[in-house]
Design a protein that fits this description.
The protein is mainly alpha-helical and 326 residues long. The chain folds into two domains: 80 residues, no CATH class; 238 residues, MetI-like fold, CATH 1.10.3720.10. 74% of the residues lie in helices and 1% in strands. It is built from 16 helices and two strands. Strands 1-2 form a two-stranded antiparallel ribbon. The longest helix is centred in the middle third of the chain and has 32 residues. It is flat, with a radius of gyration of 28 Å. The termini are far apart.
């Protein structure tokens, strides 16, 4: 008796879901986007867990940070609405922030394009090597990303005493007589940070570009030779780069986030804060107000400016990359 009841309940439940699916099917036929959603409903169902996590841990924090940028919030009291005061204070009453913006722009303008070009050129040249040699050299170039504490090597190179490699070699060569205080002198801090950041840019970007180059069909080069491509530069512009547009955009995004997100390098090399704020960046300023002073409203305003800057730069670079091969 119980078995018959279970069968009937399962049958009625199945009929109910079939009826709802027919209604959903009829509803979806009224609009193209609804029909597309209906036909791919199983895919959307599989995406739902990721979308919920992305919404909870990425979209929601960004929205909350944007809203907190218009408040005074010290982690002890409830947020108090102050409107545009945080942004006005940043640009009109905070000279250290202006210094941080200047330093970040200098680092981004130099290390962004230059690091991107260097990573691509090395990837392009290494891709032409034999397979075994290419694998070894790729590992050598990717090593900076694997070595998390590699910045300490640069701190040793530019140590301010006789034991620093830079000072030791310069003294041995007779170029200087006394050690240079590299990381305690405001004149040297920013160039050293730029040098280290360029060295570190040969990481994920380089590896992704190598993968993109490996994915290009070699038959296209043979067909292009028949069509009139005469040299390697024309191959690069009309075949290699157009086939790598998605990889180039990905590498550009990584490079932008790396250039605008410089902060840990300056702290590891020059301390926090650096001498005369010579290596102070927007990220350092954000850490100062967010992790030390706990002025979360002010820190959120800084984070919003950094986020918007990254989006604008990404859009500009996307437009430039779309013109490749045209």
């Amino acid at each position: 008796m119980e078995q018959n009841t279970n069968i009937k309940s399962k049958f009625s439940l199945r009929k109910y879901f079939e009826k709802q699916d027919r209604k959903f099917d009829q509803w979806s036929r009224k609009k193209p986007w609804r029909r597309k959603f209906y036909l791919n409903k199983s895919l959307y169902a599989m995406m739902t867990p990721y979308l919920l996590l992305f919404l909870a841990f990425t979209i929601a924090p960004v929205v909350m940070s944007f809203l907190l940028g218009f408040t005074y919030f010290n982690m002890l009291e409830s947020p108090r609405w102050v409107g545009w005061d945080n942004y006005l204070d940043l640009f009109l009453n905070d000279p250290i922030f202006i210094t941080a913006v200047k330093n970040t722009l200098i680092i981004a303008v130099i290390t962004g394009p230059l690091g991107y070009i260097i990573a691509f050129v090395f990837a392009w040249l290494i891709n032409e090597l034999p397979q075994k040699l290419r694998a070894i050299i790729t590992l050598v170039f990717y090593a900076p990303s694997l070595a998390g504490g590699a910045v300490a090597i640069w701190a040793l190179i530019f140590a301010s005493d006789y034991y620093g490699f830079a000072n030791a070699y310069l003294i041995n060569w007779g170029l200087i007589s006394e050690p240079i205080t590299w990381l305690q002198d405001a004149a040297y801090i920013l160039p050293i940070v730029i040098l280290v950041q360029l060295w570190m840019s040969l990481g994920v970007n380089f590896l992704s570009l190598i993968a993109g180059l490996k994915g290009i069909d070699k038959n296209q080069y043979e067909a292009a030779a028949v069509d009139g491509i005469k040299n390697r530069w024309q191959e690069l512009w009309y075949i290699t780069l157009p086939n790598m547009k998605s990889i180039l955009i990905f590498a550009a995004v990584i490079q932008i986030s790396g250039a605008l997100g410089v902060g840990a390098v300056t702290t590891a090399l020059a301390g926090f804060p650096s001498v005369q704020y010579a290596g102070h960046t927007i990220v350092n300023h954000l850490q100062d107000y967010g992790h030390i002073r706990y002025e979360m409203g002010y820190a959120s305003a800084i984070a919003t400016i950094l986020f918007v800057s990254g989006i604008l730069l990404k859009n500009i670079i996307n437009k430039l990359i779309r013109k490749v091969g045209s």
